[in-house]
Amino acid sequence: MTALRPPARYDDARLDGYRPQTESQAEALQKARQFVRLVRVRAGRPSWLRLFQRDDGLRGGLYLVGPVGTGKTHLLASIYHALSAPEPAAGANGRGGAEPVPCAYTHSSALFRATEPPDAYADRVAAEARVLCLDEVELDDPAGEVRLIAVLRALRERGVTLAATSNAEPERFVSGHLGRDRLERFISEEFERQYHVVFVGGDDFRQGLEKEGRAWVGAPDAARAAMRRAYEAAPEPKRWLAFDELLRLTTEVERTRLAERLAQSGALFLDGIDVADTDDALRLLRVADDLYGLPAPPTLYFTAAAPPAEWFAAEGRGGVEAAIADKFARTTSRLTALAEVERV
Questions:
Q1: What is the pLDDT of residues 218-268, one digit of tens each?
Q2: What is the pTM of this model?
Q3: For the domain that residue 29 is a member of, what is the CATH number?
Q4: Are 13 and 6 in contact (CB under 8 A)?
Q5: Residue 273, C-beta contacts closer than 8 angstroms, at least 6 positions apart
Q6: Which of 163, 221, 222, 286 falls between 20 and 30 A from 169, CA-CA?
Q7: Could you tell me if 164 and 279 lie in one domain?
Q8: How far is CA 136 from CA 16, 56, 120, 314, in A?
Q9: Which of 32, 293, 295 is nearest to 165 (CA)?
Q10: What value does the mean pLDDT take over residues 11-18?
């Protein structure tokens, strides 16, 4: 579990490097610093004393929630790096430093793919880590919610503290979309009573980044012709994939290996992105997440008949579709951060 680290893109993420743009982001940074301090205080106590400790202000952990592109993953990775490194010594005598706190970092999708029962999963984490950093909590069905809550309870029982991020506030998990009042109350109680829930608001910072890639939106023939010209001008290695072919590859190639294969190309050209249903949305979401997490993703080019914001919008959807559409907004944010969109 100790081998689970933040994506390479966040190797240099540090709390000192987070630049708040809103009041809520400044508060989130302050809460992240406080979390690190309290975890170190808790970790420094004898194990027998931890079993009888009163509320130390830390509770079960920290839950950062807010819209896409507000720096939540940066904060989470920064927490991981801050705890995983020795604390600087304090004072002229050099005393006051603390040993690293063992941490594990994973994406929620890995937690849901794990085959162990919740108690066994928690045992595996607790054997090597005192803190679990869980990125992008996203739930598609009530069974996933029940598993998540069972895992979190098991981790608390084993003394593992949680730091997590999500685009969805606890009451907007899929149970809320499905009207399951009992489960919704259960989730609300679980998070509001056990965790510090901190809202991280603001605009999507990714849209202000310099974009190396390019996208063409409009009539398919015109968009494809524009991208073909860019493809012919691009140096090797490069790869052209029809969207249907990309979807097929997601069913044939394990996702980590697929990301590695796609990253072997310096430029990736995706032709005709057309998200028809939840299955398409989830497959594209996973590819985009995996590529975005790389330290040097391929330059992205793509074509589509409609702009990304319209591919799988939440408006007019209900139930599971609405829950998936909420998190698909992160995918469109990341794609448009990698490629400048031009209408043709």
A1: 999 999 999 999 999 999 999 999 999 999 999 999 988 999 899 999 999
A2: 0.75
A3: 3.40.50.300
A4: yes
A5: 243, 284, 302, 303, 304, 311
A6: 286
A7: no
A8: 22, 26, 22, 18
A9: 32
A10: 94
